[in-house]
Design goal:
Residues 145-364 form the PPM-type phosphatase domain. It comes from Streptomyces collinus (strain DSM 40733 / Tue 365). By secondary structure, the protein is α+β, with helices and mostly antiparallel strands. It has helices spanning 24-39, 47-60, 63-84, 90-134, 185-205, 209-226, 307-310, 322-326, 334-348; strands at residues 141-142, 145-152, 163-170, 173-181, 235-242, 247-253, 259-261, 267-269, 292-295, 301-305, 357-364. Strands 1-2-11-10-7-8 form a six-stranded antiparallel β-sheet. The longest helix is centred in the N-terminal third of the chain and has 45 residues, at 90-134. Mean pLDDT is 81; it is low at 1-20.
Length: 372
C-alpha cells in the first residue's frame, strides 16, 4: 500500500475558493428571464421570475457571488423597464423591492450554508486523520519481506470499518496481524483500535508467538469488560511471524487460512493443527494456541485476507474463488497482483462491496536483493 497522501481541505466559498464560485446557474436563469422578456408580447412582464434569481444564488454561490447576482438582477430589471418605458410604473418598483428583499434573505441563507460547509469539512478532516491513526498504511518493506496491502470498506465514504491490519518490524522478526471484528459502525472501529493498540505493544515485548497470542486474547477480553460489550463481541484474527530464518510461523483465531504461494506457482493453505477460537472467546476452550511453522523461501508469498474477500457473492450467489484466481496471477508483481485482485473482486460483486475486506501480501525477498 502506498504511503498516505497529505490531507487537503476541499476548496469552498468565501476565503476557501474563488469569489464567484457557483454563479453560472443563476446567470443562466437571469439570461433566460431576459430573453423571455425580449420575445414576449408587449406589456407582458417577467419581474416575478427575476426575483427568483438571487434565491437560486443562495444555494450555489459565495457571499460575494450572491451580492453580485442581486445587483446584476436589479440592473437587468432596470434595463428591461427602461426599454419598455416602465421606469415610473408601480410594478417596476415592486419588482426592485422584491429583488432587494430576496437578495438580503439569500445573503443570510448563503452565510448559513457556507458556515455548515466549513464545519463539515473540519469534521471530515478530523475523521480522516483519526482513521489514518487507527489504520496506518502498510509499509513497502520490513526486514526480509516486501509488503503490499489493500483495504475495501463496505461503506463508500469510510476508510476503515471492522477489519484491521498492522505490520511491524520487531526484534523477534516481522510480525503481521490481520483481524476481522464482529459488527459494524463505531463499536467495531473502537474494538479494532483496541486490538491494534494491544498488538503494537505486545509484538515488541513478547518473545514467542504463543505469548503474543495470549496477550491479544487478554487485551480483547479487557476491552469487552471495559465497554460492557456483550458476549458476542469477538474478533477473528491471524498473526504471522517472519524471522530472519527462512520460515514463517502462523497462529489463527478462527480466521480464514492464509494462502502460501510458492515461487514454483503452487498455492497451499497454511493450516495449524487446530484453529483457536476467535479473540474474546478463549475462555471457552483454554487449551492454548497452536503455532504452525512452515518453510518460507525467497520468492514465496503469503496472502492474508478477511472473509469479506471469500464471502463476496456474485449475482448467482457463488462465492469468490480466491485460491483459483490466484493461480492465474502468480507471475504478477505484488502491487499488480493486489490491484488485479481488487478489480476482479469488485467485478465479481457487481460493483457492490458487501462487507469490509482487507488483504496483506507478504513476499520473501532474496538475500542478495534486500538492499536494492
Amino acid at each position: 500500500m502506498a504511503a498516505a497522501r497529505p490531507l487537503r481541505t476541499p476548496r469552498l466559498g468565501g476565503r476557501f475558493g474563488p469569489a464567484l464560485r457557483g454563479t453560472p446557474l443563476p446567470l443562466l436563469a437571469l439570461t433566460a428571464a431576459a430573453v423571455l422578456d425580449a420575445w414576449a408580447p408587449f406589456r407582458t412582464r417577467f419581474g416575478p421570475v427575476l426575483s427568483a434569481v438571487p434565491a437560486l444564488a443562495a444555494a450555489t454561490c459565495t457571499l460575494t457571488g450572491i451580492v453580485c447576482t442581486g445587483l446584476l438582477t436589479a440592473l437587468v430589471a432596470t434595463g428591461i423597464a427602461w426599454a419598455n418605458g416602465w421606469l415610473i410604473d408601480s410594478p417596476f418598483r415592486v419588482t426592485i423591492l422584491c429583488v432587494a428583499a430576496v437578495s438580503v434573505a439569500a445573503l443570510e441563507a448563503g452565510a448559513v450554508r457556507l458556515r455548515r460547509e466549513r464545519e463539515l469539512v473540519n469534521v471530515r478532516l478530523i475523521a480522516e486523520t483519526a482513521q489514518r491513526v487507527v489504520l496506518r498504511p502498510v509499509p513497502e518493506r520490513l526486514g526480509p519481506v516486501r509488503l503490499n496491502g489493500v483495504y475495501l470498506a463496505a461503506h463508500h465514504q469510510a476508510r476503515i470499518g471492522g477489519d484491521a491490519y498492522e505490520c511491524l518490524d520487531t526484534a523477534h522478526g516481522v510480525r503481521v496481524l490481520v483481524a476481522d471484528i464482529r459488527g459494524k459502525g463505531l463499536p467495531a472501529v473502537e474494538a479494532a483500535a483496541a486490538l491494534l493498540t494491544c498488538f503494537r505493544e505486545a509484538a515488541h515485548t513478547e518473545t514467542s508467538l504463543h505469548r503474543l497470542a495470549q496477550r491479544l486474547e487478554a487485551g480483547t477480553q479487557r476491552h469487552v469488560r471495559a465497554t460492557n460489550a456483550s458476549s458476542e463481541c469477538f474478533a477473528t484474527a491471524v498473526v504471522v511471524e517472519i524471522p530472519d530464518e527462512e520460515v514463517v510461523r502462523v497462529v489463527r483465531f478462527g480466521h480464514p487460512r492464509p494462502l502460501l504461494m510458492r515461487g514454483s506457482g503452487r498455492t497451499v493453505p497454511l493450516t495449524p493443527p487446530t484453529s483457536s477460537l476467535p479473540l474474546g472467546l478463549g475462555d471457552l476452550a483454554p487449551k492454548g494456541h497452536q503455532v504452525l511453522t512452515a518453510r518460507f523461501r525467497p520468492g514465496d508469498r503469503i496472502l492474508l485476507y478477511t472473509d469479506g474477500v471469500t464471502e463476496c457473492r456474485a449475482g448467482d450467489g457463488t462465492f469468490y474463488p480466491l485460491a483459483q484466481r490466484l493461480r492465474h496471477w502468480t507471475g504478477l508483481t505484488g502491487p499488480a497482483m493486489l490491484d488485479t485482485l481488487r478489480a476482479d473482486l469488485v467485478r465479481h460483486g457487481r460493483g457492490r462491496q458487501q462487507d469490509d475486506a482487507a488483504l496483506v501480501l507478504i513476499e520473501r525477498v532474496d538475500e542478495d536483493r534486500r538492499d536494492r
